[in-house]
Records
---
Amino acid sequence: MAGDQGPWTIKKILDWTDTYFKSHDIDSPRLAAEILLSHCLDVRRLDLYLQHDRPLNPDELASFRELIKRRISREPVAYITGSKGFWESDFKVAPGVLIPRPDTEVLVEAALKVLAKGGDKPLRVLELGVGSGAVIVSLARSNPEFRCVACDLSLTALGVASSNAAMEPPCPNLSFVAGSWFTPFRPKAQFDLIVSNPPYIPTRDIETLQPEINRYEPLLALDGGPDGLDCIRTIMAEACDYLVPGGTLLLETGSDQREGVDGIFKNCREFASIEFIDDYAGLHRVVKLEKKIANSKPL
Ligand code: GLN
């Protein structure tokens, strides 16, 4: 950032950063530059255009330089700014908590469709593995009548998720529980819907992921064991003990895990049906499983 004439205006520094990020193979370089600069100057992205001629003072330049360095070392934009937009809200994120992905909005969409069918009593929803809380907070905010519970093994995740739940608009219909998968709950038909975005990356694939992911994001939220299906297997094997008859389990999965998930389904006799739902890129992203209405009794 030196050797040029004239002051460093917003426009000039954005152009420079865009080129610099491109030369370091940073994804969406212009967008990253804009998000980081608006974070640094504490203005909206739109203001960068409205004030494109504004020169940056030396303090602003120095702090922006630090953000550029962090991004070049592959730290995700969301960890640098501490927030990520998902569904209808901005969510706080922090190291130790998976950054919500746009693909996971498909899970929210599918959950809202299931919940729209309603019921005579307030619907009860459980999320296993809460991360930043993006999924369950979005569901809880969509209808104050839903009774929502979120469970995570990671106290870091529970801390971030509960602070997201306390942000505007708050969701008093959501509570948090610490523990691994179903261990904090009694096996009782109590939830109408269970949702989860469990870790599903096969262990050997972790090191092939982008450095943003494998250097910075929590392994606990990514590593799904040798074939990526360990957690999905556990959740599918136990979910029916906690679902009401006819209740639904929705899981995010890897797009190439259809066959594996189908195989697990065939061994879970309490589910009546399985359906795969595509993400916006047309890849299988969510699996929807419905518990049987009644146990079929032998004749
Ligand atoms: N979709 C995430 C990724 O691409 C993985 C999330 C998960 O394992 N649940 O990194």
---
Amino acid sequence: MEKMWSGRFTESASSLLDEFNASIMYDRELYVEDIEGSIAHASMLQEQGILTKDELVLIKKGLAQVKEEIESGEFKWVLSDEDLHMGIEKRLTSIIGDAGKKVHTARSRNDQVAVDFRRYVLRKNKEIASLIHEVMRAFHTVASKHSETMIPGMTHLQHAQPTNFAFHLMAYGSMFKRDFERFEDSYRRNNISPLGCAALAGTPHNINRKSTADALGFDSVSTNCLDTVSDRDFAIEILFNISMSMMHISRLAEEMILWSSYEFKFITFSDAYSTGSSIMPQKKNPDAAELLRGKSGRVYGNLMSLLTVMKGLPLAYNKDTQEDKEGVFDSVKTIEISLRILKESLLTLTVHEDNMQAACKVGHLSATDLADYLVSHCNIPFREAHFITGKAVAKSEGLNIDLSDISFEELKSIDARIEKNVMPFLSIKNSMNARTSEGGTSTVRTVEQLAAFNTWLDNNK
Ligand code: ARG
């Protein structure tokens, strides 16, 4: 089949090269952006007197038909057309004749692919941010019911201090808020039009880049064509944004997997988001959460892959750059379904408050409170208070009880300076509620945090 660029060639391309060179089997994902880009470009060419009104009418009609054919599945994607840009242009020309051959005036596939892919990535930055927003709402919905549900706060996966479940969930809420802002920020930074840069150096035709930028919803026009046609920072950014967000998801998934085990039994996933075993009839496995944890692997891979493709590339466009798309498509699909699954898993899980509460009665969670009491009420230096508390913990272990259940007499026998007013400091609930510093876990502070989070959600829809 004759290529669009075959003027200087005498031999036809090998079919092996066709297969290697083509992106048409996957870049068709960009067909909406490609058709809109061509309409904006052709409209501008007409405004500038480069195309006639009649030609523009034909081009628009033809492109509308191409779009319909793609959407109905009628369109023939042919490997030897190389990429969607040429596939669409070829079909357009076969529908409308010579006017189709004029669309590419003052344009190159280099700025064409740059505009298509950039707009796809911009759109996905917005769509993913909005899915994250939905997940944040789900966090808020679940957390709102649990600002008094105590749960052991951990460091090193060992019991540390009592917190509440809402406080714990809102830690993830904070991570997703940063993620949301990162996607929005990338959108703002990259909302710049590449169209009109042509192959690498601009064009001698009297084009109007602002007009196409406005038509396509860009904030402004890029300043250096050489940079623009080979810039894929926007793609690397979304891959990074996705990786960061999937890393957060994997941390939560890991905790949920632990929490759903018999050892913890803090939560139960709904049947709709659990799976069974082919051999062990009793099993209910957290496969959804495990995949949420595991999918970070492939999105990190896609990020590393594109960073490596771009490393050391001389200016300007090189075919290496065609390797930018599949990883982005894959990461986008991965995070989109992950966020949907995460939201539904959250909204449908059962929280076992009693088990969370019971877990707070082991591990001497109020030990820091005893040390703080010794400092503030007995005027004992913190290092010494730490040591005395350690003795009280050892004593409790010997008695096989939690520090929160130790008697006043036992404490007094460890250090005579301890007074009866120590007792409230041992209570787990008091321990949690004592942490009233900004951002702390007390119910009062948690409720405040939930309210601020809710306001933020309302203001950032
Ligand atoms: N399919 C190509 C890509 O995705 C389009 C740009 C090709 N430009 C060129 N001069 N070969 O990067």
